[in-house]
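Researcher: Good morning. I'm working through a list of sequences from a screen, and I'd like to move beyond sequence-only analysis. For each chain I'm collecting a predicted structure so we can compare shapes side by side. This is the next one on the list. No need for commentary yet; just the structure.
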Amino acid sequence: MRIPFDNSYANLPESFYSRLEPTSVSSPNLLAFNDKLADLLGIEQNDPAELAAAFGGNSIPQGAAPLAQLYAGHQFGSYNPQLGDGRAILLGEVIGTDGIRRDIQLKGSGPTPYSRMGDGRAWLGPVLREYVVSEAMHALGIPSTRALAAVSTGEQIWREQGALPGAILTRVAQSHLRVGTFQVFAHRGEVENLRILTDYAIERHYPDATGPMDLLRAVCAAQADLVTHWMSVGFIHGVMNTDNCTISGETIDYGPCAFMDAFHQNRVFSSIDSQGRYAFGAQPGIAVWNMAQLATSLVQLFDDRDAAVEEATEIVHAMPKLLEENWLKRFAAKIGISAPEKGDTELIEELLGLMQTDGADFTNSFRALGRKAARDQFTNRDAFEHWHGKWQSRIKGLPDTQPVMQAANPALIPRNHRIEQMIEAAVAGDMAPFERLMRALATPYVETDADLSHPPSAQEIVPATFCGT
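Model: Good morning. Structure tokens for this chain:
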């Protein structure tokens, strides 16, 4: 196997990371491999055993520069001064056939200096969950880290549930730079490292940015677009800590995430989010909060701190309006309006209110709009018909209403109960449900597998998801 590494992060000061190799495993076995992504990365593939050895951590590909990255972060609002890759190793970077630089990272590859008493490993369930959901997000057109490979290790991982099968995910991202990467140097007062990091982030992600405040402005825009895109498909990240907030604007860390079935603004899936900090409807506010933490770090680069604070505050305070504009654009498209007007917000919110009151399925309700079956998603059909009449008046005469809705409303999402069923089967040695999900979710706007579009029965509802440890 040949991987055309072109590493840049490893050339930064060694205070940014710890150099180390992944810990080998007893019996690596390739469970899944993303051939199309491998082609994009320019990876020349060999036999499954060689792939399993490389992406299981047992052999280091030529040209790799393995390291664990340092970062900090706010976790549920509380600052942790040193986090870092506790169970991940960055193998290196490649410049793909599309000209974009990307990281290749092993997740679950053993302990690092940042493991904080953990074993640095992952078990099969979270690895397959991230593989399926991250690739589904990509197919939905939402910026995301991606899955290149899943490897079983042949070892048992001990968690609260007992002994579980070990696995390693190979994750690909435009970078793993986070808000927390900036925070660690700002908190330590290491201004020169902060400056080096800022210059690196600009060169890698936003080359048109002219300095730290331009970087902040670009990241705010990227995050505003990302979060509203999440919401338009009913996605709840579940753990929007600053160490899970990328500078690139990609979705990262698919631990306690989920796509909603029945709609509710306050829906929470994370088993540890008892206060609803990261609930569905709270996500825009948290995005602003995270950007305020990035701004707090970047102002340290300026001699005139007061002027920098003033400019950064103006940028962050502009973000709620940007979020509102992006939200309206996304949700207006879901009801067939490609050029929304101010009054459309009320029309959309009225529909969401009906959905919340009736417990209507988020994905299927939007997908059914324009069909007679739409009213069947609601128990209060009179209220829906009243809304429907106002909606019809609004879209009367608009061009391409149906194509706009079809492009904005997926037929398929990775529903939580299906993912849990897939994991249960995989643990028992049956990868067919995983493969079925991957086939169907590759074309989420096409109704290819109607059975996967059904909401869970009362017995199938998964009320909570857990951090991927």
